[in-house]
Amino acid sequence: MGLAVQLANGAWLNTAFAKPAQDGFWTSKSTLALGLSALSLSIIAVFAARGIAQPLRRLAVAAEALGRGQEIVPLPETGPDDIRRTAEAFNRMQARLHRFVDDRTRMLAAIGHDLRTPLTSLRLRAEFVPDGDVREKMLSTISEIQTMTEATLAFAREDATAESTRTVDLSALVESLCDDLAELGYDISFSEGQKISYSCRPDALRRACRNLVENAIRYGERARVSVERQADSVEITVSDDGPGIPDSAKEQVFTPFFRMENSRNRETGGVGLGLSIARTIVRHHGGDIVLSNKQKGLQATISLPALDGGPPPPISRPVAGARDVASALEKAGPSSVATPTAATH
C-alpha cells in the first residue's frame, strides 16, 4: 500500500507500507500446538477406554467363571450407565441361579426324606406276605427304590458342597487315580504325557474320571487312559475293549437311572447315575463328554476348555445357602450312604 502527498513547497512525499508475507500453516508453533492437543486427547481417550473396557473384561471373566460352576463375588456396579446396568443385571442373574439350585437341592432332600417312611412301612408289610417268592420280589423292588433314592440324595449332597477351584497338575491327578485302581487289581494303564496345569475342582473332576474308568473296566475288561493338550482344549481319553454301545443310545446313556444292562442287578449294572454324574461335573467345568465306538471297544473323551488366559482370579467362596442345603441333606440321609460311582454304557 502506498501514499503520495504534495507538500507546500511543491515537493512530493511518497510513503509505502509493505506487510511481510505470512508463512504456511505448518509452522513450528502450529505443529507444536497440534501435537500437544493430540497427546492430551489421546491420554483422555486411553483413560476413557480403560474405564469402559475394564468393567467389560471383568464381566467376561465373571461370566466364564460362573459358566464353569464357580461362585464369584458380586461385580462392582460402577462405570458408565450401560456398564453399571449390565453389572447389576449380572449380579441379579447370579443370585437367581443360586436360589434356583438351592431350592432344587432342598426339594430333593425333602423328597428323599419323605420317601423313607413309606418305604420302611412297605418293607415291614412285605415281611408278612406268606408267599415266599412274592415276598422276595417285593423286598427286592423296595430295596432297589431305596438304593436309587439314597443315590440321588448322595448326588445332591455332593452337588451342594462348594469345592474351591485351584490349579493342579491334571496329568498327575488322573495318573494317581489310575494307580489307586491298579492297586485294587483292576487292569488299567495310563499313558504318561506332559505336565498340564489346569484350574478346576480336582475332587469333582477326579470323581468324573473314576466313573468313566470303572465303567470301562466293568464292561470293557480293561481301561487305557491318557491326557493330552489340544489346540483349544484338554482331553482325557478312556478306552476299553468292550462291545461298545449302539449309536442311538450314545445320548440316552447319560440319562439318570438309564441302564443298558437289563438284569436290574445292582452288582452288575450299578444304579445308572455314573455317566450322568460324570457329564454334569464336566459340564460344570465348561466341557463335555463324548462317546465314540472304535474298531474294538468304546472310547469316552472328556473335553475341557483350554484356559489360555490363565486361571480365573481367586474369587471362589462358599456358595450362598450351600451350607444350609448340605446340612438339610445330611439330615435327610445317613452319612454312610455310598455315592454310586459307575453306570452302564
Characteristic terms for this protein:
single chain; 345 residues; alpha+beta; five-stranded mixed sheet; disordered C terminus
By DSSP, the count of extended strands is 9
**H/E series:** EEHHHEHEEHEEHHEEH
Strand content: 5-15%
**Main sheet, how many strands, which sense, barrel?**
5 strands, mixed
Shape: elongated
Structural class: alpha+beta
Mean pLDDT: 78
What radius of gyration results from the CA coordinates?
A: 35 Å
Taking strands numbered 1, 2, ... along the chain, how are they ordered across the largest sheet?
4-6-7-9-8
Return residue spans where pLDDT drops below 50 for at least 5 consecutive residues. Answer: 309-326, 332-345
Task: Provide an overview of this structure.
The chain is α+β, with helices and mostly antiparallel strands. It is built from 8 helices and 9 strands. The chain has a 5-stranded mixed beta sheet with strand order 4-6-7-9-8. Strands 1-2 form a two-stranded antiparallel sheet. α1 (28-67) packs parallel to α2 (81-127). The N and C termini lie far apart (105 Å).
